[in-house]
Design a protein that fits this description.
The protein is of the alpha/beta class and 221 residues long. Helices cover 51% and strands 12% of the residues. It folds into two domains: 143 residues, 3-Layer(aba) Sandwich (Rossmann fold); 66 residues, no CATH class. The chain contains ten helices and four strands; from the N terminus they run βαβαβαβααααααα. Strand 3, helix 3 and strand 4 form a beta-alpha-beta unit. The model has no long low-confidence stretch (mean pLDDT 93).
Length: 221
């Protein structure tokens, strides 16, 4: 199986570059494409916004249509799938998933696609493995980590920052959003190598892992 991952930011790419081989092994190929934010699904499902701004949902209709055409030309013995990974933020999960499915349903042909939504944010998947955080950041604050409720809508990146960043989320935010993005990428680089993908407390990570294994397993049958 070949996997094409679409993620909303560079920290997501850094995490998946490390985590995907841990999940599916070396018998499958993959590529992770990162964007500069989540954006929004355009009305009428026509790719919206400026392409050079590279906002994931703005470009999703165009991207899925393109993958549908590309995958249709693959040899049958080389199946491929698109995995869209994005944050829920404060949206309704059911309604957001339906919006994403409507984009896929408008494609002809449809690419094999799975939508994997991190709840609330991608840092939830890192926080699902406290042991990995402690290995990467031995001085991380236990009180903050132990108080976190997995996949809760609580300000997830702020929670991780409060645990591992000097001065916490307030100090990091004061440095500007570019600094926040850089720190998120650093978290991915430092924590993901220590993560046990078979033992993660984040339900949305477990769902992501399950979908990858289902697709990878289907090619072996």
């Amino acid at each position: 199986m070949h996997f094409e991952f679409l993620v909303e930011d560079q920290s997501g790419k850094k995490a998946l570059d490390i985590l995907v081989p841990k999940i599916v092994g070396d018998d499958h190929t993959f590529k992770v494409h990162f964007y500069r934010g989540i954006g929004r699904i355009p009305k009428g499902l026509a790719a919206g916004g400026e392409a050079n701004k590279r906002m994931l949902l703005d470009q999703l209709p165009r991207l899925l249509r393109g993958h549908g055409r590309t995958f249709g030309g693959y040899p049958r013995e080389t199946p491929a799938a698109v995995i869209v990974v994005c944050d829920l933020d404060d949206k309704c999960l059911k309604a957001f998933r339906q919006e994403l499915l409507s984009v896929l349903d408008a494609c002809n042909p449809k690419p094999e696609t799975r939508f994997c939504i991190a709840i609330e944010e991608g840092e939830a998947w890192l926080l699902g493995d406290i042991r990995a955080i402690k290995l990467a950041y031995p001085r991380a604050k236990d009180a903050v980590l132990n108080a976190y409720v997995n996949d809760s809508i609580c300000g997830t990146w702020e929670c991780l920052a409060d645990a591992v960043f000097k001065g916490g989320s307030a100090s990091l935010r004061a440095n500007g959003w570019q600094a926040v993005g850089a720190e998120k990428s650093l978290w991915s680089e430092k924590i993901a190598p220590h993560m046990d993908v078979t033992n993660n407390a984040s339900p949305s990570f477990v769902y992501f892992r399950k979908k990858l294994l289902e697709l990878a397993g289907a090619t072996a049958r």
